[in-house]
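Subject: Major facilitator superfamily (MFS) profile domain-containing protein structure
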Amino acid sequence: MDFLVTKDDDANFIRDHEKQKIEIEERLLHSKHEIEKEDTEPATFEDAIKATGFGKFNVILTLAMIFPSMAEIFEVVSLSYVLPIAHCDLNLTLNDKGMLNAMSFAGMVTSALFWGRVCDTLGRKNVIVYGYICNGFLAVIVSLTTNITALSIAKFLGGLIINGPYSASVSHLSEFHSSKYRARVQIVRGIMLSSSNIILPLMAWGILPRKIDFSPFGIIDYHSWNIYLMICALPPIISGIIYFFMPESPKFLMTIGKNKHALEIFRKVYKINTGKPDHTFPIKRLVRETYCDEEKNIDRTSVNVIREGLNQMKPFLNSPHISRIIIICTNAFLLTMSMNLVKLWLPQIFQASSDYELNHGSNESSDVCSILRELRTTNVTKVEDCKVNLDNTSVYVNSMIVGIVRVGMFSLAGTLVNLLGKKTLTLILSFASGSFCSAVYFSPNPLAVLILYALHLSLGCVSDNLLTTTTLELFPTTLRTSALCLHLMFGRIGTVVGNVILPQLLLIGCAPPIFFLGSIVFVSAILTTLYPSTENKPLI
């Protein structure tokens, strides 16, 4: 009897087991069907980057931009603090100062198109890592120079190198964020650039006024400004080391047909941001943006990269790209010229104000024309009679105040861009910037000069940053970095041209340089009205 009961129980157990087995198989088939359904609908880049969310990885990547931002600012602005201190050591005239200010930008102009195609062909990461390491090496060489010729060559080469990694880092940052966050992280990048303009005068204040003169091994004469330039070599080196551990842009990988690698990166970013296992990433396939064979060994020698680059620049000559690139480049030429000229010459204007107080007594207030007149007196100086005013704390304090105002404006712009949109905000800020710049002519004292130029720079630099973001959104991935490089190249051409023109205008008088810098910003604002809207436009 017990035996029969046991047999029945066993039979029931077997039936239940078979039933469960069938249910599991049905669920597996259903899951397989769902996966196959997902596989039949490959996701775009925008869908995939949205699915990764916004979290720890995005914060780390954005913070990593601190050192590239410092490297960019240190490369182009560091000499502006050196020139008032080193003009006796180097026997500099106003034209010499303009030339030295322009050398880094001249190097950037020379390499702009080459770097653009290298970044779009070879990828962002390698350009960032090796480019910044090379730039740091050249910055060390700059710190060892003791004559104007060697300094000019070294700064030119430094500008030639840094153009690539900086453009690549901007694209790299943008391509790890969806359209919802893209403009805002670029605003954060602008804050970092502005913060670098606070760190730089703070460093200069701590080093340049020191009377340091020695000759190591009797080879070169070393001064405080040489030490200052040596420290400025650290940010690009640190940048190269940090980005060695960063992933390649998945958008770039999709563009060259490496969808499997791109999907792996999406999964890793998803895992870091959400804390979930990477196999739960909802995207299983990516759209194929190219028909390149992922396993194919592509010939990427320097000659072929340049040839491919020249061929791929042809789309800029076709509609709608040609009209857009003309407006973009003209606008960048004008707006960046004004921003960079004020940025590069402002420490010398503050130094001239300090010199005026030293020469005429601190109780005598100087208007802007008196300050510029004092600046002109350093144009021709006999070496034996040359003296440097090292009691110039106001130079560095004023420069830091300008930097702080810029940081505040960028912080506010993050909110305003959501309320008004990029185009409207750029238009308003550009007109305001030009107005403040022109109003400098009526400044009765150094404080007014400081306030007006701080407002001019902060508003204008936010506009410039927004226009950079717009440039990235107006072109497809295969042209994006090249478009950005053209944007930056024409801005730097404007800076080079401006540094040739401005010393001549300073020699003429007070009004010409001031109204020249203000009027070109007004023209830039007018050009902004011709931009198409790119609000929440996905990367394509």
